[in-house]
Amino acid sequence: MPTKSELPLADKARLIWLLDFLRADLSQKAMPPGALLDWRNQVFANLHESSLATVTAPDDPDLAALKPAYADERDPTVALARDLLTRVQFELLEGVKSLEQSGSWQPFGITPGSGPLWSWERRSDGQIVKAYCGKWSTITLATASDLLLANWSQLRRCAYSKCRALFLPKENREIYHDRKCSANKRWSDFSPKRDHQREKERRILKTGPGRGRRRKQR
Ligand SMILES: [Zn+2]
User: Fold this and answer.
1) pLDDT at 4 over 50
2) d(CA 22, CA 218)
């Protein structure tokens, strides 16, 4: 059995992929179609395959977003894929936030029948896994939340207040999710600070510098 701090490599790689996905800006402005389709195609290997999750809803409208597509914004599948991934990412981020704030997360609400079905299945390597089946977004949400929550105690939020991204620290002393956030935090701590309130007061009282020559009082 792996200890708490030693995830099996495959699971660790999958978790790192998932955290990268949760931090990714999926908007059209930030993510070109080719990169978006890569994220979509990687979901199977990182979330479904190792947990034997299967899509079993032939009428699932999201299946249209999974068709082969050209890495071109004009291909309608690209827009569908962007919408699908954005929805899944949003639900996961909201779920994590809810768990942090209220200690509870119901990924599939409380309506009976909205969650996935599952069974115990033996994988080819002999490991028994909980295998979900249902709609694509359902099995993705289920497998992703399992992966996150199995490693919950090791996850951290980036200490840079403008980021707060979820990440897996490589070392215990790591408090920023990347070097950019660490540099930004240092910059915001040491850069000269302007006190806008004080500057405003001084402007009103005309006691501050940079107001030009004061008019002579008559
Ligand atoms: Zn950060």
Assistant:
1) no
2) 66
